[in-house]
């Protein structure tokens, strides 16, 4: 077994220490696990995901993803370009660009050739049922389509780890189920490691492992 994510004694606070969120978090995630992160609103699930992705730095402690420490600008940028894909609750696609243009952004960032990038976009769009939507502006897409588009974007550069922050939280029940099933299928087919923050007990129970955040730490 390979431990792909290691979080050791991580501390993160805001407002000059007045808001303490992560208070010595330890978490080991094995490659191929699908892990649900649950806990009450405001307990720090998003903060922990952001710290693992290198989107935020902890004040203390250490994060390692796929054998590499996440600490400075360079390691954080490399991590997001090559190793980790991130899906947010609200897609975070650029509304005025077409879906295809949005999906090309991460490919351009890693210097993929234009033809390889377009092939990759079509491959992912086909898998997610979005082929007919590629030339639509994101603002013209439905909520479910946007979220499927966000999944494609996260997978563009073939990450090993997918981090998802309430990926279906903004969707109605029917779309929630469809997007979650698609997410799990894409993860399983690629053997990815998934860490997903969720409030939804049903979705959490369909992951291989559930950890709860409480009082700034995690418990199984
Ligand atoms: N940039 C920030 N500045 C100040 N406080 C912040 C910041 N980001 C998060 N917080 C606070 O940190 C705490 C944890 O927030 P976080 O978003 O990680 O919780 P969460 O468990 O993901 O919540 P939810 O389930 O509601 O999304 C909250 O009290 C939040 O208000």
UniProtKB/TrEMBL annotation:
Residues 5-220 form the ABC transporter domain. The keyword Iron-sulfur does not apply. One of its GO terms (cellular component) is plasma membrane. It comes from the Bacteria. Coiled coil: none annotated. Keywords: ATP-binding, Lipoprotein, Nucleotide-binding, Transport. This is ABC-type lipoprotein export system ATPase subunit. InterPro entries: AAA+_ATPase, ABC_transporter-like_ATP-bd, ABC_transpr_LolD-like, MacB-like_ATP-bd, P-loop_NTPase. One of its GO terms (molecular function) is ATP binding.
């Amino acid at each position: 077994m390979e431990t792909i994510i290691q979080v050791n004694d991580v501390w993160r606070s805001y407002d000059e220490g007045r808001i303490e969120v992560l208070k010595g978090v330890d978490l080991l995630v094995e490659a191929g696990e699908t892990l649900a992160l649950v806990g009450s609103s405001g307990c720090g699930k998003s903060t922990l995901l952001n710290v693992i992705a290198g989107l935020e730095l902890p004040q203390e402690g250490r994060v390692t993803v796929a054998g590499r420490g996440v600490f400075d600008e360079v390691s954080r940028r490399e991590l997001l370009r090559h190793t980790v894909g991130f899906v947010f609750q609200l897609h975070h696609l650029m509304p005025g660009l077409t879906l295809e243009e949005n999906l090309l952004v991460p490919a351009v960032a890693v210097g993929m050739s234009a033809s390889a990038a377009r092939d990759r976009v079509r491959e992912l769009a086909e898998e997610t049922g979005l082929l007919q939507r590629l030339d639509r502006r994101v603002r013209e897409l439905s909520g479910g389509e946007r979220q499927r588009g966000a999944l494609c974007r996260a997978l563009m550069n073939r990450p090993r780890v997918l981090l998802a922050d309430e990926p279906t939280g903004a969707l109605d029940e029917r779309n929630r189920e469809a997007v979650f099933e698609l997410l799990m299928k894409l993860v399983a087919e690629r053997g990815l490691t998934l860490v997903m923050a969720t409030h939804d007990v049903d979705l959490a129970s369909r992951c291989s492992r559930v950890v709860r955040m409480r009082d700034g730490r995690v418990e199984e």
